[in-house]
Structure formats: C-alpha cells, structure tokens
C-alpha cells in the first residue's frame, strides 16, 4: 500500500520541495532518508546514483519502497533507541523531507542524526511554513482548519517559521548554508481562504512579511566546526539571500509598474490620435458650415469674438 503522501516528482520543477531536496543532495551519495514512506523520493535518489537507507514508522506503506532501498528500518524516530541500529554507519546526506513537524522531539532526531553524518556530509530539511499568509488570515477569522496534508496537516505536532527552523538546526550542531522556498500565492493553499475574507489594509500588512507566500522552507546544513567564522558566514549567507529576494521582489514590482505605465501611455497615445482626428473633423465641419452663413452674420460673429 502506498502512503497518502506519495506523489509523482518532476525533478526540474524549481517550485517543488522534493525537487529542491534532490538537487541539494546531488548524485552518487550514501543517503539516510527519514520518513521514506512508499519511496517516491527514494526512487529519484536511486536515479541520481545514490544508495539509500530508509526510516519509516508505518510498516504498512514501506513495501513499494523496498525496490529502491538498500534497507529500511521500521521504527519511530522519536524512539532514541532506534539510532542504535545505525551504529557504525555513516552517510553523505541525511534527508528529513516534511518529517520534523510530525515528531514529538525534532531536536533529538536531528542531534542524533548528526552523529551519523560524514565530515563533509550535509543535512537537508523541508518543513511547511506556519507563517504563510493563508494561515494568518485564517487565524484572524478565528479558524485553524486542519487538513489531511499541507500547512495544517492534522498530524503535525510542531510548527515552523524560517527563524525557528534555523534555530532548531543550530541547536542540533549544524549551520545553514542554503535556504530555498516553495512559493504558493495568498489564497492559493488548501486552507481555502478567499479574497473576501480580508480587507485591503490588513492584506497589505500581511503581505509585507517577506515570507508571506512561502509554503515550504527547504534548507541545507553542514556540521558546525565550532568556529565563530563559520557561524557568521552562515548568518551572513542567509541574510544575503533574503536581501537578494527582497531586491528581486522590488525589481519585479518596479517592472510591473513600468509595464502598467507603458500600457497607460499607449492608451493615451491612442486617445490622442482619436482626438486629433476628431478635431480635424470638427474644423472641417466648421469650415463647411461657415460657407453657408451670410456675410453680414459672419462679420457680426467675428466682431463678437473680437
């Protein structure tokens, strides 16, 4: 039986958490995949030349994944004793794809996983963003609509923002080297919020948050070597990426405004051409009318104009 989280993956989709994780892991790695489910990510990892050890707490869904896994450990990640089954084993990459939010103690799972990370290894994590605009709007309406999957999956125990995720990773002895995002526009999630649910001023305030349309965070982290230089580099890198995203958004807004002004200018030029034609037509009609006005009346009109 397949997990209800099983889905087809397009590795070329830059706005998909699975594709982003696969890119971060790379090729020909030994991978520990936490929450392998029925193997939709495992299959793609194997296609990238990776060997994969899977962890899954639901024994009923792992059989389809077995064809792509070196082996699977059916245990609960919240059970610290589980990690004893990996004694002596190490990995180039450890993958927590939409897993940490389901755990009672995500910090313990991350911390234990680092013990099995090779010196040059990486940890890749994907979590949903609880600070998405749709969640904020739902809360302002007094609602917290749990769903079968997505931002408010009813099995979520922990909820993350970007800052709380980075803080968790640091406490586990890691530093973040890359932050990517899956973007879903406001009113576009499974929560079902509508434009009519919020006023203009409130919506503007909600969207002012740079992460307001971030649906998922996907991060890559490495082992902290204990130096302030590495920690500072990680912080600077994250801030630089965020500033770059802000600049991109500003540039996109300016380009949209320029395009809007160009459209307005084109409309004005079109209207001017129509007005010029109308004016010419009126002048012609005036000249035609004047030809039929008796001279004394024309002289009288001229004097009144003067």
Short description:
It contains 8 helices and 7 strands, in the order αβαβββαβααβαβαα.
How does this model look, in words?
There is one protein chain. With 306 residues, the protein is α/β, with parallel strands linked by helices. The protein folds into two domains: 17-224, Vaccinia Virus protein VP39 (Rossmann fold, 3-Layer(aba) Sandwich), CATH 3.40.50; 227-306. It is built from eight helices and seven strands; from the N terminus they run αβαβββαβααβαβαα. The chain has helices at residues 17-25, 40-47, 106-114, 133-140, 162-171, 200-207, 228-290, 295-305, and strands at residues 30-34, 51-56, 71-74, 91-97, 117-128, 174-183, 214-223. It has a seven-stranded mixed beta sheet with strand order 3-2-1-4-5-7-6, with helices on both faces. It is elongated, with a radius of gyration of 31 Å.
């Amino acid at each position: 039986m397949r997990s209800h989280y099983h889905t087809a993956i397009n590795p070329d989709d830059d706005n998909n958490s699975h594709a982003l994780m696969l890119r971060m892991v790379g090729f020909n790695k030994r991978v520990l995949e936490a929450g392998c489910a029925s193997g939709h990510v495992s299959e793609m990892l194997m296609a990238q030349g990776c060997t994969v050890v899977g962890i899954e707490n639901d024994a009923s869904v792992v059989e389809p994944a077995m064809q792509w896994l070196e082996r699977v450990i059916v245990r609960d990640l919240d059970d610290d004793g589980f990690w004893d089954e990996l004694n002596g084993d190490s990995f180039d990459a450890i993958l927590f794809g939409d897993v940490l939010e389901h755990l009672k103690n995500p910090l313990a799972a991350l911390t234990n996983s680092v013990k099995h990370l090779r010196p040059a290894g990486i940890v890749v994590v994907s979590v949903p963003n609880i600070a998405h605009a749709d969640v904020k709007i739902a809360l302002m309406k007094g609602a917290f609509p749990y769903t079968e999957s997505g931002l408010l999956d009813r099995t979520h125990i922990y909820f993350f923002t970007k800052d709380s995720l980075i803080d968790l990773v640091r406490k586990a002895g890691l530093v973040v080297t890359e932050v990517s995002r899956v973007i879903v526009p406001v009113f576009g999630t499974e929560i079902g919020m509508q434009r009519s649910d919020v006023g203009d001023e409130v919506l503007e305030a909600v969207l002012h948050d740079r992460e307001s349309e971030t649906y998922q965070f996907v991060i890559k982290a490495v082992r902290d070597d204990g130096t302030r230089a590495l920690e500072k580099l990680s912080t600077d890198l994250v801030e630089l990426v965020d500033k770059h995203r802000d600049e991109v958004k500003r540039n996109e807004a300016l380009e949209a405004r320029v395009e809007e002004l160009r459209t307005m200018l084109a409309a004005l030029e079109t209207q001017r051409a129509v007005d010029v034609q109308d004016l010419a037509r009126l002048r012609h009609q005036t000249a035609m009318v004047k030809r039929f006005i008796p001279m004394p009346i024309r002289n009288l009109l001229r004097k009144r104009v003067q």
